[in-house]
Amino acid sequence: MTDYCLELKDITKRFSTVEVLHGVPFNLRPGEVHALLGENGAGKSTLIKVITGVHQPDGGEIVLNGERVHFNDPRESREAGIAAIYQELSLFPDLDVAENIFVGRQPTTRGGLIHWRKLYAEAGKLLASLGVRLDLKQKARHLSIAQQQMVEIARAFSLHARILIMDEPTSSLTLNEVADLFRLVRRLRDEGTAIIFISHRLEELFELADRVTVLRDGYYVGTHPLSEVTRDDLIRLMVGRTISNLFPKQDVPAGDVALKVENLSYPGVFENISFELRKGEILGMAGLVGAGRTDVARAIFGVTPPTSGSIQVAGQPVQINSPQEAIRLGLAYVPEDRQAHGLIPPMSITANLSLVVLEQCARHGWLQDKVECDKAFNAARQMEVRASHIWQKARELSGGNQQKVVLAKWLETKPRILILDEPTRGIDVGTKAAVHALMSKLAAEGMAILMISSELPEVLGMSDRILVMREGRMTAHFTRAEATQEKIISAATQSVSAGDVQ
């Protein structure tokens, strides 16, 4: 009798002529949390899609509870007791919360119609057991990313799976939501559920996981008890080298004011937001998810213009009513949700990179393919985008490489002011270090950077100054020397009067 509820033996997977998994082994015990670790592009997502029947392996075998199995599709995997929460959310935007939780499995009446009262009762009971408060009848398209993540988690929990796969489940959650999630994961583990946990936040693994398996470039590197490895060990196993400086922030004298915001407001969302951003400066904006940070960024960039307040760019008053006007003024905005707002996933890397600079690729109104390709190739090379070719579709790239494409796209506009909303969400430690190095380089060259981040080490490590928001209001302002995690958390979770904001 095997000790494992799931065994993968020498799994191989190819896409076209490219082999992305090279004989990978993996095993999972009942009642354990087994972390799966690796850089973006290491093969983690492909491996879990093999487990869940999204992809069929080209070699090797899957053994479930001692018996060899083959899943032709995700339905067969779910029926075998395997549920997955993927990094890129998959809710139906025009269905409400309860419908998304039980989509395809709605309770029905004797006549075969959906039993709506039972549907909402069961959804409410499930969310209550998870400690999640959501309007069951709210459409998914109106939920924040954190709320969508909780609906995904609830949907997976509703399956009563014996094996649960969680791919970056905490990437958009607040500290309190992460604590609640970990409590639930431990409860499931104690009840015998086996959990595969993927996260780029290494500190989470040491808090939650029992063992870790590391992949690199599609190859199996090793499996270790978490108690026997350090953070530096994991980084070295993942990237094949030691990363000594994850936050390579250069000290740069702040220049003239590049962006000035005064009393910016949008009723019910944020109110009286004021700050200055200088050339060569990285201004961090911290706060819990839902504090209004993204709304402020979108208002500055003209996506949803504020109803009151003023904006100055390089000392000149401006009215920004659209992203096009923002771009002309030298602003660029890398959004939080790269799938929905940063990329057009079915389009190629080349098409995505040229979207905001099409005029530079055209002559007499006609797109010049060679100019577009040359620009895309150079931009992708400078950002070290890992792809088979520049015509590869953006949706086929790893999360880290997708983020590089988004960054490269906006840097092609040669901005003077760069707004980064969660610039390293869901990307591996190696890519994080590269993004941080790029930010530091751009600031040293005089670019003004507004960085929104929910990761406190990133905020503290990369910011010259830090603003903190809570419930649509600015509650604190710290210099780099003054800021600590405790001060930021306090300002983000407690009401602060206007007189306390420094």
Number of extended strands: 22
What can be said about the biggest beta sheet? Answer: 6 strands, mixed
By CATH, the architecture of the largest domain is named 3-Layer(aba) Sandwich
* Beta-strand residue fraction: 25-35%
Could you name the CATH homologous superfamily of the largest domain?
P-loop containing nucleotide triphosphate hydrolases
| CATH fold-level topology of the largest domain | Rossmann fold
Q: Which CATH class of the largest domain applies here? A: Alpha Beta
Describe what you observe in this structure:
The structure is a single chain. With 502 residues, this protein is an alpha/beta fold. It folds into 3 domains: 183 residues, 3-Layer(aba) Sandwich (Rossmann fold); 176 residues, Rossmann fold; 67 residues, no CATH class. Helix content is 32%, strand content 25%. Strand 17 and strand 18 form a beta hairpin. The C terminus is likely disordered.
Core attributes:
502 residues, 3 domains, Rossmann fold, disordered C terminus, alpha/beta, single chain, 6-stranded mixed beta sheet, globular
Q: Short description, anyone?
A:
With 502 residues, this protein is α/β, with parallel strands linked by helices.
Describe how the helices and strands are arranged.
Blueprint: E1 6-15, E2 18-28, E3 33-37, H1 44-51, E4 59-64, E5 67-69, H2 74-79, E6 82-85, H3 97-101, H4 116-130, H5 145-157, E7 163-167, H6 175-190, E8 194-198, H7 202-208, E9 211-216, E10 219-225, H8 231-239, E11 257-266, E12 270-278, E13 282-287, H9 293-300, E14 308-313, E15 316-318, H10 323-328, E16 331-334, H11 338-342, H12 349-354, E17 362-363, E18 366-367, H13 369-382, H14 399-411, E19 417-421, H15 429-444, E20 448-452, H16 456-462, E21 465-470, E22 473-479, H17 485-493
Parallel strand pairs: 3-8, 3-9, 6-7, 7-8, 13-20, 13-21, 16-19, 19-20
Antiparallel strand pairs: 1-2, 1-4, 4-5, 9-10, 11-12, 11-14, 14-15, 17-18, 21-22
